[in-house]
Amino acid sequence: MDISLFLEEHQLPDSYKDIAQKWFIPLAEDLAMHYNSAIKPYFVGINGCQGSGKSTLCDFLVYYLSQHKGLNVVSLSLDDFYFDQSHRNALAVKVHPLLATRGVPGTHNTPLALKTFDQLGQYGTASIPRFNKATDNPYSVIEWPVVNTPVDIVLMEGWCWGVMPQEETALSTPVNTLEKQEDPLGTWSRYVNRQLTEHYLPLYERMQCWIMLKAPSFDQVYQWRTEQEHKLAARVGSDHPGIMTDQQIARFIQHYQRLTEHGLSTLPARCDYVFHLDAQRQINQLTKKQQKAVK
Known about the structure:
- With 295 residues, the chain is an alpha/beta fold.
- 42% of the residues lie in helices and 16% in strands.
- The strands form three sheets. A six-stranded mixed β-sheet has the order 2-7-1-8-9-10, covered by helices on one side. Strands 3-6 form a two-stranded antiparallel sheet. Strands 4-5 form a two-stranded antiparallel ribbon.
């Protein structure tokens, strides 16, 4: 199957053809098959830590399912539902200073996510939120893409998407220097955990299929996240105020460590498809729910 236009548009190497042929085209075919008997829209949740390739996978699935299956597919990212700086700063004052940094549950506009989910199933049009990481604020609403609805398949991806709340006992011990020094009482981690219970679980219930791109460990996140930032810097300029240094990234990812590690240990058992990645982000195994691993 010729996917040359997709590779060119996304500046991907020719080797991606083999990856797509072996892993992602069969996945897309499965999704198309399940869509036929599913409640519409068919919601697919995709989890993967920062830099694991979630966005590229979603882009490919949109391309394949629309071009080769004739389906109306929309890809959403949890990142695009971040609150703006002023809202997060208000949370930082009211709840805990660490909430000024985007990332953890509690820094997303979950009512907007729910509203968007609902609109994608109704007749008419829907605006798809977009967040500008370079400015750390959402794009203006007039810049959001508009899609015709109802859509057939909704792909929803996020670094903590699908991660469940932790038990209270797990919150008592800091997982890194950031938590130990800046959240010694656990106020921030408990607030984040409570947000998962109250505002994210209802959104998870909309998903009819779960996919995970599973990193070998949290140790890979720094390397992958640094690569992402370097690409962003190349696009907008390294002197842009929204670009982080490698040292800033090292601190930044500590915000994500607790839930990333929790997800790595608990999510695979709940997902329908788990793509196991090596340190170079290459897939070395696929585990399907109630099926044997494929290598």
